[in-house]
Structures
1.
Amino acid sequence: MDSHAAALLAMGIAVGLGVIGAGLGMGAAVSAAIDATARQPEAEGKVRTLMFIGLAFIEALALYALVIAFILMGKA
Amino acid sequence: MEQIHFGDHWIGHITLPYLGRLSVHLDTVLTAWLGMAIVIIVCFLATRKLSRIPNLFQVFAEIVMDFVENLTVGQIGVEGRGHVTLVGSLFLFVLASNLIGQLPWKLYHLKQGEFASPTNDINVTAALAIIVLIYYIGAGIYKKGLVGYFKHYLQPVWFMAPMNLMEDITRPFSLAVRLFANILAGEIIIMVLISILPVGLPIPVMLFELFIAFIQAFIFAILSASYVGAATSDSH
């Protein structure tokens, strides 16, 4: 396997594996937010804001994987 | 399937005194100016002839203002109303920039690169993130004094100082990369779908990108507000 092919393969693996964790985290966060809203509908606005802040941090992790993929694409 | 290009820019050169020859992403500069022009013109028109009984335009401006103010006050507290100017400017500029990318720029061909959202260029988002970094350090120093502000780096215990310093690097980095990667990833997905089937297939993703534009502007604004709030709050 030459380095070009290795870089392309690594790109796919980086994004694929990186997104698994973020997906699990987002699932947990959104399910907890929906639980909280169903339990206490009057707190919906506050819960939504907190959920978005949390999702932003989780999403940043997946985006780091994406950035690594972009760097590898530059090498390919 | 045709080759997909992204991240290309229309590079121009300018020569400035003291700085020498600089290369500039002209497409980004032009679309960023367009975004600023949209924000300035809309805000200017919305604040003419203010009246007790508002017209439709003024109602819209008041809704936006209320939204930004609630967002800022929710993060910083009532004494943080002065920071609405920064948070609101960031929100409106990022929102306008994200939405510009959804216009049909593909009809207009450039020699190099293409017109898109200015926020798909890491230089723009990094500049915005550095503005936020300088602003929240400045706001902290203004509120608590030079010693008072830098003392919080030694909390809760003194050897946490490297972690607290690291936070000042990762915060603007993640702000910049989050916005940039979200917008660029959306454009890449649309490009891939267009290369598979140009008719109809990209439309749901384009609609989702409109939603993403709002969410990212909201997240950028709310995180900036929460950083300013963390820097100016008394308790740690």
2.
Amino acid sequence: MPAPAAPNSDDQLSLFSPPPSSPKQPIIYPLHHSLSSPVSRIAISWSRGNTLRLSLLPQPSSNGGIEVNDGDDSSGGSVVEVKLSAGNGGIDDDAQWRRIVYGSVAPFAMFQSRKNSAFSFSKLPVGALSNVDWWEYVMEYSKEINSLLGTTKSMASSIVDDPRRILMVDEEPTSLKAAWELLEIFYADKQSQAWLPERLVDWLADYDSLFSETQFTVYSKLVDLQQRLLNMQTIEDDQKYWDCLSSALALGWLDIVVKLLRLHGSYQLDQLSRRETENGLVEAVVVLVSKMPRLRPELQAGRLGECYKNKTDFIKGWETWRARVTKLECSGYWVQCGHQKTREGLRKILQIMLGNTEHLSATTCHWVELYIAHFIYIRPFTVGFESLYSQAQKCIQLKPVSHPHSLMGLMVGILGENTEVVLAECSRAFGPWMVTHAIELLTAGNDQSEILLHEVRQNLGGVSIEELHRLVYAQVLASNQLTWQIAPVYLTSCRPGMGMLEILLYRQPVHLKQGLLKNLEICRLYELDTVSSNIMKIAGVHHWKHGRKGSGIFWLQQAQDEIRLNKIAQQLFDFVGKSVSEESFKQWEGLIELLGSDTRTAGGLEFLHKYRDFKRSLQQVVDGKATDAARQAVESLILLMKNPSTPQQFWLPLLHDSLKLLTWREGPLLDVAQTNLLLNKLQELSMARMRPDYVEADLPTQALSTVRLALATNLGRAILEEQ
Amino acid sequence: MAVNQFQTQQHQNLQIHRLPQSKFIDAVRWLPPFAAFDKFIVLSLFDPTSSSSTIELHSLDFPDSANPNPILSPLSTFSSPSLSRTSFLKTSQSLIAFSTFSGSLDFLSPNYSSPDEVSLDSLPSLQEKGFHVGPISCIDVLERDCVSVGEDGRVNLVGFGDGKASYRRVFDSDGLVSYSAVKWASPMEFATGGLGCSLQWWDQRRKPGEPALQFKGKWSQKTASGVVHSIDIHPSRKHTCMAGGSSGTVFGWDLRWPQQPIVLSGVGIGERPSNPISESEVWEVQFDCHLQSSNITSMSSSMMPVMMCSEEGILAVLEPGAEPFELLEEPCAINSFDINKQNYSDVICSLEWESLAILSRS
């Protein structure tokens, strides 16, 4: 696929990619390559995974003739691989991705089998199974996947030792984990649906830092303040301090608020006497903040607020608390407070606690923050998706964003109950792994999305959306040499997956033992006997061609491929005819052992086994052993000559080797019938010599007549003996 | 390499630690220590992004009993741009030998100055054309003597003299037989294994240049189709070989009764054990001397306990007449393991999914 190039400098090339948000302004990525001359043509093709391979070709030189590559780059062109890393969700390290990929296999397979058994028990669609067990399975799956994405730690946890340290980052949070937790909150964790607002508060506390990439956030404000705190004396004179206080409060980060308030100058011992009223007001606010009622079963140790498990208690608590806030707000002490900034700041805090919309809007930075603030101070008992969504719409109108973060898009999709949008956002921002595993949550209890995702679509080639995404993910897995063996788990959970699995297995290299056996093991697990035997045939032919005759025969024997065994037997016999002498037989010993005596799988090769036995007993005869050995040798000879699989080219050498037996001094070893059999064979051989394709054995010219004479002599002696 | 994540499980007397790596582990071995309390491991790693192999030496520390997570700290690394993937790795006191899929045999010599400072010196390697054709499937090292076998059917002895490695061809089957496993029994004897569950005994004094003894077991069709992947010979009972191979087969071969295999595990053998522990490839077997002292009475029995790992992700100890004892069950294959010969309670395994497992038994 040649495409016009847009070179803008000697060794740089631009890659245009229209971002979905602003289609008119392409983003330009510079691309480095080693060509020194201008690029005239580019061929683009897909490489492994989501990598593009660009073949850059320079202008052909004008002198026309065939150019010899003299080591100069300019004549050859260059191939560059471009990784389209849109879907990494903040995880840049390939190894880390593979760890997630490996870890998710077991939970996925476990969940599939539970789903299948639940389905077969109830004969109902999975969505209709709303029992407690089912949701436990869903949560277990979600938790296991979540645990792979990093350890959960709150960024806003406080340290006792250092009162001036307000933010603690234990681990860099990733968008991938944030997105998964968001899905978990809405789709999997049905047990805590009643505490949804509080779960969202926690979620934002953990991941607000992620939004800082694209916009200003409360988190980034606090990071700034953290820097200033270290070298500031009278903190309460700084407007930023008060801004941060109200912002943190708006998002419900109570511990940070209390910690910051305790840094207020009026707490210092030398000031305490002069600023008694001021300090009293600050402390009153601290008490109110730390007593704020929260509708949730429990709080992490060290977190502030008062928990209420059920709604009626919470409403009671909330009203009492609000009354206390109002009381403080109307208190006469404000007039006595001498410090203007403290007075204003504290009253703003009280306004936020009273749910003043303007203040909430002013103190939050983007719509998600505003949305969360609404949950905390204006509508703490919100339930039902409809109101959730309209509320979110209002917040977006109040705080529009030009470049929305992927998590924002995901959130809008979830709140709007728009499965397609959720999938599209997952796919765009986090790639096929996320989509494949997230679909399990989306369909867990939602009939509509289940129908949408499970419906077989003709325009997708007769698969459902769910299966399509699994196939895409399997493709990504199959493109990596370390993860290809995981692909079968996902392929086999799709209708056309078996066929694709066969293709995948056929594509794997067979020349290394480990790889071949892994391949065969997968065949065994999925009962693909035909594939397995075909792969063994491929391996057998490969080994045979590369001179590893033993391995070649072994694998063809495993595949019970008699046609090929017979074919290579011919080649092997030619080789034997030349190389088998008494001393080199030890080379063959191992192969003959391997062939065993099982004629069924050995093809024409069983001849070798008998040939070896014959040679061995003949050897003993030559060594001068007793007549018994000679009799045994004759038996072997007759067996060999009777057997149809003994190649014709061996008849004469066999007989010639046995001359000593035919002319045995102590008396004829062969009876009349046996001698006649051998004479017939000899006759057949003389006829065959007329044919053009006859291969002359490497024997003296008079060999045939010598053998005939010996046989005739033996026949005469045998007749005499029998009379 | 930083250790990012730990998973620690506690069985009754077994601690399992999983240490994820960011590269594929081709092979892992303990390196015999230089001082009493050192623990060193040698890893052969393959990086798929750069398609390069490295040999790394790490020290393994268990910081304290309260925090049992082991720490793997890299001491030295060896890599060379021409290095192909490792097919087999073996260590002795003074030598780290590793064979490659391209048919070369490389040697490193550990140079000890302190527990935190061990360097790897590269010794001359063997990569001549006549040495092996194609991959070397297995090697074994006894002090500074090395034996190598390959799919090409060659058996070579490698020794060091005049500062360079030289080899002597013991046997060349000209491709008619392929070997997949080898193990020294004594400086003059070794055993090999290959296709069709075959075993050969070689004795350089009695019968140089050909196998002194061939194992001819009467296998059923299914087992005869197997490949021997690993052989072990107990240092104090040289007449018994233990072999592991396809279809979960683990069997002993007593040279005194060469026709009669002692089957510990496997399918499709006349009188088969009630419940085969594995039906897939057994990648490695090693005699397990861990229970030797406590279980002295059963020592008189014909076969000692054997540890095996399999493609199905099972690490277990087998003993004739006893139920198999499973140490580890992984969702992915266990490609190799090694028992620490200085401290039999320590076992290290390489898992298919780029991870190491360290087991401490007590």
3.
Amino acid sequence: MTQQNRTPEGGRIDRGTPVTFTFDGKRYQGFAGDTLASALLANDVHLVGRSFKYHRPRGIVTAGSEEPNALVGVARSRAKHAGGEATPNLRATQVEIHEGLAAESQNRWPSLAFDIGAVNDKLSPLFVAGFYYKTFMWPKSFWNRVYEPFIRAAAGLGKAPTKPDTDTYANTYAHCDVLVAGGGPAGLAAALAAARSGARVILADEQAEFGGSLLHERGAEIEGKPAADWVTDALGELGNNPRVTLLPRTTVFGYFNQNFLALAERVTDHLAEPDPALPRERMWQVRAKEVVLATGAIERPLVFPENDRPGVMMAEAGRIYANRYGVVPGKAIAVATACDSAWRAAFDIAEAGGTIAVIADLRAEPPAALVERAGSLGIPVETSCAVTGVIGKTRVKRVLLGRISDAGVLSAGEVEADCLLMSGGWTPNVSLHSQARGKLDWQADAGAFLPGDPVQAQRSAGSCRGIDGLAEVLADGARAGVAAATAAGHAGEAPSFAATGGDAGGGWWLGAVPHDRDAARVRAFVDFQNDVTAKDVKLAVREGMHSIEHIKRYTTTGMATDQGRLSNMNALSIASGALGNEIPQVGLTTFRQPYTPVTFGTLATTSRGDLFDPVRKTPIHDWAAEQGAAFEDVGLWKRAWYFPKGDEDMHDAVARECRTVRESVGIFDATTLGKIEIVGPDAAEFLNRIYTNPWTKLGVGKLRYGLMLNEAGFIMDDGVVGRLADDRFHVTTTTGGAPRVLAHMEDYLQTEWSDLNVWLTSTTEQWAVIAVQGPKAREAIAPLVDDIDLSGDAFPHMSLREGHVMGGVPCRLFRMSFTGEAGYEINVPPSRARAVWEAVWANVEKLGGCAYGTEAMHVLRAEKGYIIVGQETDGTVTPDDVGMSWAIGKKKPDFVGKRSLARPDLVAEGRKQMVGLLTKDGKTLLEEGAQVTVERSPARGTSALGHVTSSYQSPAAGRPIALAMIAGGRDRIGETLHVPMPNGGIAVEVVQPVFVDPEGSRLNA
Amino acid sequence: MLLISCPWCGVERPEIEFRYGGEAHIDRPAQPADLDDHQWAEFLYMRSNPKGLLAERWRHVHGCGRFFNAVRHTVSDRFVCVYKTGEKCPDLEALAREGAQ
Amino acid sequence: MPDTALYAPATTEGASVVSRPDVTVTRAAPLARLAFRGDATAAGKAGAAFGASLPMAPLAANPVGQRAALWLGPDEWLLLAASGTVGEEVPWALAMTLCDEIATAVGTHPHALVDVSERNVALIVSGPRAAALLNTQVFLDLDEGAFPVGQVTRTLFTKAEIVLWRTGPETFVVECWRSFAPYVEGLLANG
């Protein structure tokens, strides 16, 4: 049997386009325009899931995003579902069906109808409020091994996808004068009013179609047209306005500071075969001058025993399914209400051909007109009547009624029904107002919290602020739209929309419904998704939770994906009764972002994979890649790490590269070093203040190593600085430190020394840097240099010259070394860097040289005891600590950090100092970061003397070498210390931190 | 994401174009050597950290690159005013009184 | 398309990054680029020598034929110049000549002039959807009322810093440091 609950006609579905989909592997048919929920109900499927804690069978409750039960895993096809590509926890009420769609119920094993986990329901006394806190208290050792695995297995909804997400996601930044959240009557009126004022408008609605209640409001007319036709016309007008952006299927999920809002647009999930160029979802990051919230109201469940049985639904949901989707959700439908609107649901269903078994109203005297109309439709009516329970486990079979009297509740028999519609009245949907940090005002006569004064440039319109009745809602929306447009600088007049139908209705109920059942044995649910009952809320109060925020965390009520939009008011009412306190004193929990769950893909947008971060590559990168180099990440840069030849491993390659540099020549890509050009008449004075070193007397054409401290006296960066002219310096920084150093310099220049005439320009990417190091370095570059005398006398160590290479390529040639060998750094324009590199490489190769990477560079510098900022230093290290007092200009009156160097703790005895370490056995390679102690096996709690900062196998020394920061280290030279490791302590000798050519004679070769 | 006005560019931009620079109007001593350890520590580390209005340094690092000062309410994150580096610090107490009204 | 005479599309392989009916993204041919720093007096003298005066209004650009001066900060301008001959070579000689001429004109008045021709590369984003494509990664309001033709600003392109210049109602130029170009191009190609 297919679609047995479908009405013969009516609804907005496309009956000409049948759609086949599967649910738990079974094939069903619906129509284009159906949601998964409406299509399942058309096939009389109510049971769609198992609850979170008790694994109770659950059915579809709502027709919107507040759905607590019908959470399903959805994939575009069964194959994708089987392949682990399903999205879990989608609300069936929001999922639009398409051909081939595959949905699975969750939280059940082995099947939805027979679920082992349902034993939890029998054990429910164990799972009372706060059971996590009570059950998993002790012993402590059980936490990691027993409790946490159990909780993780038992908790959670759905299954996370196992495969990487193959879909793409997009992002859009947008600005508008007026953002309207919600496209029902108030939102449409607001958008029309704002757009007619000339404002830039964005109208977003979470549903596939705009119109909200107008899509299922039978008999209502606006401007003399059926409501749905008016919606079509309104959308036509808005769609033709180039200053209006219409965003259906788009949830305003986050409202942040200064009217910054985040929207999630579902672009392709509703399509069977989407254009692969389209993203699955798009994040909209909107900055709105003004916001109109037209988010409507949400119908409130009644809290009665067994109110969670499949077949129990919200009354308005029943009306939506009947009028909008042509589905009557049962053969015999009972209605339990305290509110007029549920009567209209009953009437609409009856007129659509459904059978209403009874309308049971908690009120003694519902409006006479409703009772009369029920009579004319032949619907039995019971007043002062409560539903006291439901018979039937996986589907409602009978509904128990009770008469409310002064004497309490007396049984009033039972009614055969396979569907029960309930309504406790309406809760204005104030989530976004609350996210925007607006306060809420309690309206006792309406039994509702309404938006108070907004904190941001926003206003609420329509039923989300308690306005009822179609004409009033439209007028309120139009007023809000014009007010918003006016505030955004587009004054206009509020249009008026004449409307009939969609009458206002009264009546509401808060809290548990009285009943005549055994209170100890029945459960009335407040929060369906989290399995919180009325009893749990009362128990939480008895156990000392007096604030609603505590009750929420203790019971988990309101922590579901709808953030308590269905449950909060009932929970609050029950809590306030138990506390003997008024509702506003108990308070409402804060609504937070996101309004409904958002996929990680949408939050990540395009920042994933290769485009997660910029990947910065030098002009030499491709050459290195062609040579088979391994790369390492340094900041955002890719740097060639080592160049393995044949079947060399990293160790072999690095050893060969180091040997080659010391024996002949190596070529190294130093492009990533930060570069700053410092220009102006006060350039030297500026450097005097920023660096520890003196600069005034540095001659044009000379280089000097520069050390930079922060104001606290600690080393923050270093580099080589060259003087190009009296008023022009070429400064280099570490690769990772470049932005930080420039920011540090700008800070002092702009805010402390604005009297200095000097300016800083980043030239990091203006120059590619080819380092050529080793005894044959000069031979390697000499044939390529056009116009610079390379002889030792003309161009000694620590000099720079501007000139040309390769017949006209401009260059800045530095003679300097970070290896301890004679060497050069050729700065050339990046556009010609590869050509220059290859020319140098040809010579290097001829001379038996090699290309080397950052690892060999690290070894070579460690052999010479040159520090690396961030490796030997950690933000607590002074120049003296690393033996670099020589870099401090003693005669300078001041520089950044100088005063701090005289602080008592920086001149104290026993500071950690840089030393070398040699393992006594001459073989063991220490681990970087390992602690150093006096004893071989120190007692527990012994403080370390320091730690190993660098450790390498040194080809030049023919053994492992290490640098370390050791307390009072320089006085310990010659001592034997230990590096305790799990397999025993390693004996090390403390030595001077230079392992090769301590005299530096090779530099000047 | 906050919007911050840059007094140099004359436009409002999202906060990620800016970098925070800590409390404003703490001048680096002209002769640090003249300060004793306690005075130097005061300059180096001690900040007012009020609950309320605070004059702060900001830099429009991904815009015009300039530093400027802003008065921000540390509870509400509201920016009360911005002004260029070198300009006088507004009367924070008067601003607080205005804001309270 | 006004103001784009300066920027010629590159003719190298891969220069066309995006080619759709409603939007194109094309790498621009190399230019001479100078970073100029100094006060209004220095800027005045520099503009006279450069051939396009340095705008004093924030976010303003002054394109004059094959030259343009872009305001980046109250004492900072980016000077752009094309050699006039179509080519893929960076016009080092032009940059050097301009440096000399400007330095001579400004004389001893404090200023800084640095050749950054090779630091930046440029993309031309053009077409009815140009603003929308940029807005996938740029958070500025690119409505013509908010970001009119001629406006230029440094800003962020998600995680890359760029200089964005609107040279026409449907044409923008994105200048970024060269190593960030693949990231910017990649996101535009996906946008």
